[in-house]
Amino acid sequence: MDSSQHVLEDQVTLQPEYTSATAKEWQEDVLDIAIQALFSSTEYKAPRMRQIALFEYLYNNDITPKLRQLFNVPVPVFPGMIDTLLADFNDEIQLKFKPNNTAQYLIVPKIQAQWENERDSMAPNARWNYKARTDRFNAAISGVGILKNYAENVPTYRNIFEVVNYGDFHCQPLGGGILENHLFAGQEGIMRTLEDIVSDDNFDKGQRAKLEGFTGASAWSQYIKDAGTKLARFHSMELRPEQNSYAGAKTINLCEFIVTYKGVRYFIVFDPYTRIWLRCEKWTDIRPSGLLPWIAWQTHEDHKNFWSKSYADDLYWVADAIITMVNQELTNREKKNYNARAYDKGMFEDLQKLDEAQYMPDTLVPVNVTTKPISAGIYEFQTAELKGTVDLVGFLAMFTGQQTGITAGSQGQNQASKKPTVVVEETKQVSKRTGLRSDSYKEAYAQIGVLYMEDLREYMPPRLSIQTIGENGFIEEAELRRIEVRRAGVLGCTIISTSEQENRDKSKKQNRINALLMLQKTPNASKYEKEVILRDIGGFDDAEVNFYLDAQSYESRKQIAHASENIQNMLLGKPTDVYYGAEVTYLQYIENYMIDNKNLIKDKAQAFAAHLQEMFPVVVQNMKRKAQQQIMKKTVESFLQAGPQMPGTQGAAPGMGEAQPTNNPGEVMQPTDNGMQPGM
Length: 680
Fold this sequence. Notes:
Elements: H1 7-11, H2 23-59, H3 77-88, E1 93-98, H4 108-120, H5 128-142, E2 144-152, E3 158-163, E4 169-171, E5 184-193, H6 194-198, H7 205-212, H8 219-227, H9 232-236, E6 251-261, E7 264-271, E8 276-282, E9 294-298, H10 311-338, E10 341-343, H11 351-356, E11 378-380, H12 389-404, H13 420-459, E12 463-469, E13 475-481, H14 482-488, E14 492-497, H15 498-521, H16 527-537, H17 542-549, H18 557-571, H19 584-596, H20 598-601, H21 605-642, E15 668-672, E16 675-679
Antiparallel strand pairs: 1-14, 2-3, 2-9, 4-5, 5-6, 6-7, 7-8, 10-11, 12-13, 15-16
Helix pairs in contact: 3-10, 10-12, 13-14, 15-16, 18-19, 19-21
């Protein structure tokens, strides 16, 4: 870490006597650090916020009138370019949880179903798709998108997903592009009523009383006064919140910060104007991992600069130049239509008659004849034509579009004159360009998935009812238990856009078909050759390759998942669960694990043997039932193929008596040193 990242430490020196400070004293110290951090960040980013305010004004077609220019038409060049970029990012983002081990196959579909229910919820704390769109707009304007995810279980469990505006967010100056490395981060503009604050038991009771009894200027009025560029969006739409901000109750502008104090992160909620803190505690007591609740991503990543450039920085000046040129052309046209002229007072004494002649037909104008010709008595002022304005505007728009990926096709313009191959190639290039800038966005949502999983483990109730797609394709009611979420550990998480997912699925499907066709054409290939075909050509992962090559273990992935879960329980010394759907695959997987990991399970051998002994009767019973079902199925098929029989004819349909398995039903698999062997 660079030494420049420790600016905050130089500004707020921690004294040695803090080690013996009382609770209230160290909380006041944390408050001092948070307030200094707020002021430091505000001053640091103020010039950048003023620049972004210009972008917001121009996006909303609010332009500053230029002197000596009759026209100030807000040509929608800038918002058109921004909206085109946002359209390229408008795919619905899919958050996909992935198992990191076999046992997690059981829990992943439930967690995936729970998250999808959260994402599609229209509750104010959810609405993920709407908030994702607004976050992308913030990033296109400012260069930085900021998301926040946390959970609460009072009065009931709910996950809260929020978008944080760049004007309200603060972080360490010179802290670098990765927010998690910053010594502090926080946000302001959290407006809450005084009644709501006083009744919130999460806040310190004594501090609530201080805030309730504080007499001074209205915090909201002070906030409006100091807001500055934060109101640009409102002002550009002719809204004046500073003149009318009535909300029915007194509102307080709270700040939430996480600051580093003596090497430990502390969470603090405070009012910067009264300097009263309401909540102050170790952050790990709230979120055990210690990760920040805010996730930031940049459209133009810069490892040294958190407040990096944006698309608006590239487009603003070109759009401003185009608007200026268009308005200059309109102004010159107006001047030309005014047709300003000068006249000789000696020749034209009746000015009214001369003026009427400009717009009234057959008008006679009296003239004093002199030695000069009449044409010499009137002079017409010429306004120069701005030739090439249209060509220059078109060039600027085309050149800027080429550099930023805003092509005619992406803007919906007709490309009928282009060959299909050219259009497809341009589309690929645009996709690559937007893909480069969307990688940071997708990684940020993957981080949100990690935070979501952690909050689920810490705050969810003992049980949640969810709906999943069952093995037969039907919607099934399932139960997500907190104990199994915590037992699952860390899951993998990836993000992929809808269109990208479709392209990948199509390519993946074709590769798998090609690999399976190759295997059909080479039935005598060795196991190694089959593995190479499945893995390198078909793109199958190792688990899928094993399932395919081993016909017995391919019967059910759920068998392997349950077996793996119980193996982990035995290794950890935890009780195992009886899986009443177990078949031979279940026992075979555990036996293979015992053979491959003798040193690992040597002190757990008794637990493994006891579990196998417990599961043998279950497996035998299930295999009997399965064999009976198979024989019954073949009997019915034979009956249908034979067709109806006339009474008294030979070859009657086979009977439907009770089927017996081909193997001796009394045989039970017993563990030996050489593996599973049949025994009585």
